[in-house]
Amino acid sequence: MESVREILRKIRRLEIKTRGIVDAAFAGQYRSVFKGRGMNFEEVREYQPGDEVRTIDWNVTARYDEPYVKKFTEERELSVMLVVDVSASGNFGSVHLSKRELAAEIACLLAFSAIRNQDKVGLLLFSDHVECVIPPRKGRGHALRLIREILFFQPKGRGTEPGAALHYLNQILHRRSIVFLLSDFQAPDFSRELAITSRRHDLIALPMLDPREEILPDIGRVTLEDPETGEQLEVNTSNPGVRKAHQRAFLRAHQERLALFRKLRIDTISLHTHADYLPALRGFFRTRERRLLIR
């Protein structure tokens, strides 16, 4: 069991790392790709050359016999929900980070990007059921609480059920929100709940991948254990056919998930425990920026 001091040190270290990234790269991009819910009327002012004719307030113009226009400001405040898988399979990591540690870094970066832009951030942790829900709020202290929960929350369940998490989310979120779903998606079919959430909210899926789940090393006979079910299987990793079959099965499942996300028009950011996540995040922001410009 880690001491309180060590826990605080880890959280602080993660805050320093991700806030540096936010300040250097992502705060502006976040604001440009996640727009507010609409425009709020602020005031009327005298018409100036270059103003759009459609913003003219004809009632005020008639009253003062001079053209006046309506001035609007963007309703900027958004609600962001981080939906994070804390099942037993998230503790796996063969190189640098476990999937859960990677999820914590990404969630931290997204939380500070949102808070930097005066948005609210909330958290839902799930395994085979909803484990913990923290409603969206603002502030650095709130963001640090979310990170602490992602890193150190002890779930009761071991399995993975994104469908249960999304079903619950659809019941408690009544206004359109940005939803980041972080999971390895090693789960039964949850396409129905995924479709409903993607219609109601701006849903972004972030699959967490580890290289050892795709490619088995050639190390002879080993016993593999499913962390969620405890089921064990003896595998001869020296057999090339076994390794190829394992890789094909992994890639097939991953491609099927990506195809489902594309079908539902859900943006996807694939993240790897052994690789730098910044290129994938930058690519996501650039793609969304281009799409907004085309509209």
List the defining traits of the structure above.
9 helices; 11 strands; alpha/beta; 45% helix; 295 residues; seven-stranded mixed beta sheet; Rossmann fold; elongated; two-stranded antiparallel ribbon; 2 domains
Topology:
Blueprint: H1 4-33, E1 38-46, H2 58-64, E2 68-75, E3 79-85, H3 99-116, E4 120-126, E5 130-137, H4 140-152, H5 162-172, E6 178-183, H6 191-200, E7 202-209, H7 211-214, E8 221-225, E9 232-236, H8 240-263, E10 267-268, E11 271-272, H9 278-294
Parallel strand pairs: 3-4, 3-6, 6-7, 7-10, 7-11
Antiparallel strand pairs: 1-2, 4-5, 8-9
Helix pairs in contact: 1-3, 1-4, 1-9, 3-4, 5-6
Describe the model.
The protein has helices at residues 4-33, 58-64, 99-116, 140-152, 162-172, 191-200, 211-214, 240-263, 278-294; strands at 38-46, 68-75, 79-85, 120-126, 130-137, 178-183, 202-209, 221-225, 232-236, 267-268, 271-272. Strands 3, 4, 5, 6, 7, 10 and 11 form a 7-stranded mixed beta sheet that branches. With 295 residues, the chain is α/β, with parallel strands linked by helices. The chain has 2 domains: 4-33 and 77-294, 3-Layer(aba) Sandwich (Rossmann fold), CATH 3.40.50; 38-75, no CATH class. Helix 3 links the parallel strand 3 (79-85) and strand 4. 45% of the residues lie in helices and 23% in strands. Helix 1 crosses helix 3 (99-116), helix 3 (99-116) runs antiparallel to helix 4 (140-152) and helix 5 (162-172) runs parallel beside helix 6. The protein contains 9 helices and 11 strands. The model has no long low-confidence stretch (mean pLDDT 85).
